[in-house]
Amino acid sequence: MFGYLTSRPWIPLVLGFALVLGVGVITTLTVAASQTYNREVRRALVTLGAADSVTLSILEMNSAQRGYILNRDEAFRKRFIQARSDLDRDLRALKSEYAVLDLPEGLEEEVEIAVNDRLSAFNEINRMLTADDVAGAGRYSAEARLFTDNVRDALRKVKQVAYNRLYASQRAATAAGDRAYLLIIAGLVMACLLILGSIVLLVRRSGELEKANEEVRQLAETLEHRVEERTADLAEANEEIQRFAYIVSHDLRSPLVNIMGFTAELEDAQRTMADYATAEDSAVPPDVREAIVTDMPEAMGFIRAATGRMDRLIKAILQISREGRRTLTRDTIDLRALFEGIADSLSGQTDAAGATITVGDLPEVEGDRTALEQVFGNLLDNAVKYLRPGVPGEIKVTGEQRGKRVVIRVEDNGRGIAAHDRRRVFELFRRSGEQDRPGEGIGLAHVQALVRRLGGQIHVESELGEGSCFTVTLPLTMATRN
C-alpha cells in the first residue's frame, strides 16, 4: 500500500483538496445559517424599538392632552396631533413584525384592545374639551391612566417575546460560529496531515524533492501574506465598529440632554403650579390639584429615572468605545503595589461594608497600567459591592507565575453566582442575582474585552451563597495590539 502511494504522491493531495472543499462547503452553509440568525436578531431589535416607540407616542399624547387641559394652549393640541400621527406609524411598524415573532395566542388581540381602549379615552377627553367640560376632562384623564398601564403591560409581553427570540438567535448564531470554527480547524488539521504525508512520499522521489520544497515555500509565503491581509482587514473592521459605536452614542446624547433639560423646566413649572394650586385662596378644582401635586411629579420621576438610566448606558458605551480605540502602552508594573493602591481607593466602601482586602505576593509584569487598573479595580469593586449581608467580607488576592504567564485570583465570600449565570455575567448588559445594586451590566464585559486585548483570559468559579473566584491569566509581557 505504501509503495502504491509512493508511486502516486498526488493521491494524498487530491484527498486533502476534497477535504478542504468539503469543509469549505459546510463552513459556507454554517455562515449562511449564522447570517440568518443575525437577521433574526435585527428583526427582534426592530420589534423592541417599535414597541418602545408606541409606548412613547402614547405617553406623549397623554402629556400633550393633560397640558392642554391645564392651560388650553394650542401648542399642546399640535403636539397631541403629531404624537397621534407618530403612533399610527409606530403601530404599523410593530404589526409588521408580528408575523416573525410567533406571538402567544391572544397577545396580538390584547395589544390591539389595550391601544384602542386608550385611544377611545383620548377621544372621549377631546369630546369633553370640545364641550368645555374641562373639569370632567381632567378627572377622566386621571382615571385613564389605567388604560396606559394596560398598553404598557401588553407591550411588555410583546417585548419579552422579542427578547426571548433575540437571545435564542444570539445563542444559535454563537453556536453556528463555534461549529464553523471547529470545522475549519479540524479540516485544516486533517488537510495538513494529508499534505505532510504527501511531502513524505515526495521525499522518496529524489528527482522531485527540490521542486516540491520550492512549492511548499511559495505556498507558505502566499499563506502568510494572505493572513497579514486578513488581519489588516479585521483590524480595520474593528476600528470601524468602534468608531460607529462612538458616533452613535455621542449623537444619542444630544436629544437625551434636551429631554433632561426640558424635564427640569417641567419640574420648575410643576412646582409653580403646585404652589398656586395649594394656596388657601386657590380656585383650582381638587382633581386638578391632585394631578398637579401628585400625578405630574410621579410622571416626571419616571422620566428622570428612564433618562438617567439611558444616560448611564450611553456613557458606558462611550467609555468602552474610547478604551477600544486607546493605544495600549507597556510599563513594568508591580501587581502587589497596584492592588494595594486599588484597595486603598476602596477603603471607604470596605469600612462601610465591614470587609477586608488581603493582597498576597504577586509578580511583576509588563503591560498597560490603565487597563490593569480598570480590570482589577472592577473585580475588587464587585467583590465589595456583592457581599452577603451580615457576613464579614473577606476578599483575597493571590497569584503566581507559571512559565511565561501569570495567574491572578480575586476570591471573596460574597453572594456567589448561580450556575446558569456564570457564563452570562461576561455578556454585555447582562446581570445576575438580585438587582439591588447600581449597575448596567457592562463592567465584566469590559473587563473581559480588556483582558483579551492584553493577550489573556478570564473565567469565574462560584457557588451561590458561598462566594466567587475570578481567575485572570495574563502573559508576563502583555500585548499592545488593538
TrEMBL record:
Q: Which reaction does it catalyse?
A: ATP + protein L-histidine = ADP + protein N-phospho-L-histidine
Which EC class, in a word? transferase
The record's section on PROSITE patterns has: HIS_KIN (PS50109)
EC assignment: the record states 2.7.13.3
What GO MF annotations does this protein's record show?
Answer: phosphorelay response regulator activity; phosphorelay sensor kinase activity; protein kinase activator activity
Annotated ranges, domain Histidine kinase:
247-478
One Gene Ontology term of the biological-process aspect is:
osmosensory signaling via phosphorelay pathway
**SMART domains registered for this protein in UniProt:** HATPase_c (SM00387), HisKA (SM00388)
Q: Which UniProt keywords apply?
A: Coiled coil, Kinase, Membrane, Phosphoprotein, Transferase, Transmembrane, Transmembrane helix
Query: Which parts of the chain span the membrane according to its record?
Result: 12-33, 180-203
Which residue windows are coiled coil?
A: 202-240
Its name, as the record gives it, is: histidine kinase
